[in-house]
Design a protein that fits this description.
Structural class: alpha/beta
Strand order of the largest sheet: 6-7-8-3-9
Oligomer: single chain
Helix content: 25-40%
Order of helices and strands: EEEHEEHHEHHHEHEE
Number of strands: 9
Number of helices: 7
Length: 215
């Protein structure tokens, strides 16, 4: 397991964040620092603001107060540079039902500005447990298979330092959950940062450096 690095080049910092939705204060005064080789696990009851916080981390939602820093700079200033350092997977699979599994992955890669040969995309789907389903329309897949199709992007995202995953273990069976936990541990062990929410008791490796943030 890679040792955690000092706060600096690729650290993520949350400074005094506040979020209000529909006139209700969800959280305020939220602070955390995550360095390379660490996982930030966000915990809280339904409606506590976990998804809103992850959207703030990605720059998709502006905080009422506070800021998110990447490499010591406000992400609002970094824009495309921060986007290239980020992989965000929301709590829904966000797949197009009429496209095949492979086509969905290729579209997602193109939208992210990634380049991957077709054989690499097919290999990612095989690792995610979708061998033989590459050309199946997404509408024919189970919920668990749809989740695997979305998560296949992680196989091709090793060079992307920050992963933000909203309830990534939803709908996964034991084997798929174990695969995902291993993939997350591999990324953190290589010096990446992972921010995730999960309402499940996920069996991540005990030695995995973690920071817990309770809402």
């Amino acid at each position: 397991m890679a040792a955690t690095g000092p706060v600096g080049a690729a650290s993520l910092q949350l400074e005094n964040l506040q979020c209000t939705r529909s006139g209700r204060l969800l959280f305020s005064g939220l602070n955390a620092t995550v360095v390379p080789g660490q996982l930030l696990r966000v915990q809280g009851a339904n409606g506590a603001g976990k998804t809103s916080l992850l959207r703030m981390v990605c720059g998709l939602l502006a905080p009422q107060h506070g800021r998110v820093l990447w490499r010591g700079l406000d992400i609002a200033r970094l824009r495309e540079e921060f986007g290239r350092a980020l992989l965000y997977l929301g709590h829904t699979a966000a797949l197009k039902a009429e496209l095949s599994v492979l086509e969905n992955l290729q579209v997602a890669l193109a939208l992210a500005g990634w380049q991957a040969a077709p054989q690499a995309a097919r290999a990612a789907l095989r690792e995610a447990g979708l061998a033989g389903r590459e050309h199946a329309p997404v509408r024919t897949l189970s919920q668990g298979q749809r989740r695997r199709a979305a998560l296949a992007r992680l196989v091709l995202a090793g060079a992307t330092p920050l992963w933000v995953l909203d309830e990534p273990f939803n709908a996964l069976d034991h084997a798929a959950g174990a695969w995902l936990a291993s993939r997350i541990a591999r990324h953190v062990g290589a010096g990446g940062i992972v921010v995730l929410t999960s309402h499940q008791d996920v069996a991540l490796p005990a030695a995995l450096p973690q920071v817990t943030l309770a809402l």
